[in-house]
Design brief:
Strand content: 25-35%
Largest sheet: 7 strands, mixed
CATH topology: Rossmann fold
Distance between the termini: 12 Å
Strand order of the largest sheet: 5-2-1-6-7-9-8
Number of helices: 3
Number of strands: 9
Number of domains: 1
CATH superfamily: Vaccinia Virus protein VP39
């Protein structure tokens, strides 16, 4: 079982025994409850800014972390959410960069390592929910980087994709 002392917080309430890890939480945009206590929210940055339309935009993870090197033991979570940056290019000070982040030139290796880490911390028979916006890189090119084959997802030809994986193995 995960214990809150294994992941020091950055000022937010960290659940004592999270069952979900969102490894690139960003602003938690798709969460119905942005403070859901069942989840541990991780991102590589904190942000508090005003967008061009006047709205406040906040990224406030429970823990600062790198999706390519997660500081948790193997098989720690039954559910992992992986919504990495999907842009290769965005203006240096654009709202797209602020909101979504930008992938490095080594994006294939970064995403391959991210998938590997998500599967490493996922419990046997656990579920990985992967979200990808197909604006600059095709979904098929990204899924080729995963070591497990997906179960299902939406088949829209362009746009945002949701893909669900289940890790093989026997429950512990």
């Amino acid at each position: 079982m995960i214990d809150s002392h294994q992941f020091p917080d950055v000022g937010n309430v960290v659940p004592a025994t999270p069952s979900v890890m969102d490894v690139c939480c960003g602003s938690r945009a798709f969460w119905f409850d942005k403070a859901d206590t069942r989840a541990l929210f991780i991102d590589n940055r904190t942000v508090e800014t005003t967008l061009c339309d006047g709205r406040t935009f906040t990224i406030a993870p429970d823990r600062i972390g790198d999706f390519r090197n997660l500081p948790f033991p193997d098989a720690s979570f039954p559910l992992v959410i992986f919504d990495p940056p999907h842009l290769r290019q965005a203006g240096k000070s654009s709202w797209l960069r602020v909101k979504y982040g930008v992938l490095s030139d080594e994006w294939r290796d970064d995403l391959r390592r991210g998938f590997a880490e998500c599967f490493r911390v996922l419990q046997p028979l656990g579920t990985l929910v992967f979200k990808w916006a197909e604006t600059q890189i095709k979904l098929a090119d990204v899924l080729a980087l995963a070591s497990h084959k997906p179960l299902f997802g939406n088949r829209i030809r362009a746009g945002t994709h949701w893909v669900v994986f289940q890790k093989e193995g026997k429950p512990s």
